[in-house]
Amino acid sequence: MISEQKLKEVCENYKIDFKKLIDSNPNILEFGDYTEICYVLDYLRLNVGIMPSNIEKCPSILYRNVSNIKSNYEFLKSKRINIKEIESCLHVLSSDSQQLKDTFKYVKQNYGLKSIERITSILAVAVDIIKSVENLNIGFKNKIGNLSVAVGIGFGFTTLEKVQAILNSEEYKAHPELFTSQTLAHSNIEKIQAILSSEEYKAHPELFTSTTLAHSNIEDISELLKQDYWRDERYKGLLTSTILSRSKSMLKKLPILFKMAEYFNIDDKLNTTFLLKSPSQIYALIKLLEERHESLIVNGKLNAKFGYQPGILLNTYEIDLKEGIKKYPFDETILDKKDGFKDCTGDDKTRISYISGIMPETSEARIDNRGIGDE
């Protein structure tokens, strides 16, 4: 056990967000030990090169046996598994060493090494679970779908029984295109039936995809569709299947994002990719573009950089969004101020004079925002 005060000290020393850590897994206070946590953090930081933000997403690793973590890391390193694949799913390192080796061997033999690189989380799942999914004979176009479902079961997102219930349903037979591995791994038949029998689905079937079934529910979908934004000429074209599939988070952030867009006078230039970022990311990016004397609107369109992922912004344009968020922390009260801001010449002017500047056509290519093809 570790006290809140001690854990806060550890987080401060290792530059970890205490609130995010606790919100993600409060069990660390009960199962964590001060000395062991420090050992694990030193190893992850110095030997593995893990970023604090990744530890915040998987705090359970902090109360795992450090010898076990070392053994797993050395094994994966010997198999030439990219550290980038590991750092986003640290639970793999905290798996039982023998189980990890058995799973690695089985998946490599039956699915290939690339499957492990694509779904690294599978290494934290026992072989028996993978075999139980295979025995369902789901019939994916690409059998790697079995691994996605096995991860869903292994991490408690679903159960074998819930997957079987979906496969035996009338909905599955009627709409096979909506049932990908992600749907099976993250949803259940009750949620799916509620969505597919809803008035919302009947009115807007084109907005409902497998991702919607996997990650949303009819309550959030219904609430999102009721919003006045979609009757506004500026925003109604932004209601897409991507937005609907993220209905829970969109209900929280859309009011802020639209308010921010209006504040900076870019509300009639928005696109869907703008809405996929958080308010903190958008605000930081706006301020960083201001630093670089770049207009928010280029040749009559929203600056293409709003559509780029953080990795592209950093590696291609040297725009560090994480550091930008620290430098320019977002507070919604900022949007209530009416004092304008400095344009790229440093003079105090109205917001519209800054953001509507015309810049030469660029050769920037938008990143491909499509996900990996489903099974």
Write structural notes for this entry:
- With 375 residues, the chain is mainly α.
- The protein has a domain at 248-375.
- The protein has 25 helices and four strands.
- It has helices at residues 4-13, 18-24, 28-31, 34-48, 52-57, 66-78, 83-87, 97-111, 113-118, 127-134, 145-154, 160-167, 170-174, 181-186, 189-196, 199-203, 210-215, 218-225, 241-245, 247-263, 272-276, 279-291, 310-317, 321-327, 351-355; strands spanning 297-298, 301-302, 341-342, 348-349.
- The protein has a two-stranded antiparallel ribbon with strand order 1-2. Strands 3-4 form a two-stranded antiparallel ribbon.
- Helix 4 (34-48) packs parallel to helix 6 (66-78) and helix 18 (218-225) packs parallel to helix 20 (247-263).
- The protein is globular and about 60 Å long.
- Mean pLDDT is 87; it is low at 340-375.
Quick structural gist:
With 375 residues, the chain is mainly alpha-helical. 55% of the residues lie in helices and 2% in strands. The protein has helices at 4-13, 18-24, 28-31, 34-48, 52-57, 66-78, 83-87, 97-111, 113-118, 127-134, 145-154, 160-167, 170-174, 181-186, 189-196, 199-203, 210-215, 218-225, 241-245, 247-263, 272-276, 279-291, 310-317, 321-327, 351-355; strands spanning 297-298, 301-302, 341-342, 348-349.
Contiguous helical run count:
25
Helix content: 40-55%
* Total E-strand runs: 4
Query: What value does the average pLDDT take?
Result: 87
Query: Strand order, biggest sheet?
Result: 1-2
Main beta sheet: strand number and arrangement? 2 strands, antiparallel
Strand content: under 5%
What is the H/E string? HHHHHHHHHHHHHHHHHHHHHHEEHHEEH
Helix-strand category: mainly alpha
Runs in which pLDDT lies below 50 for 5 or more consecutive residues are 340-375
Inertia-based shape = globular
Integer-rounded radius of gyration:
23 Å
Terminal-residue CA separation: 44 Å
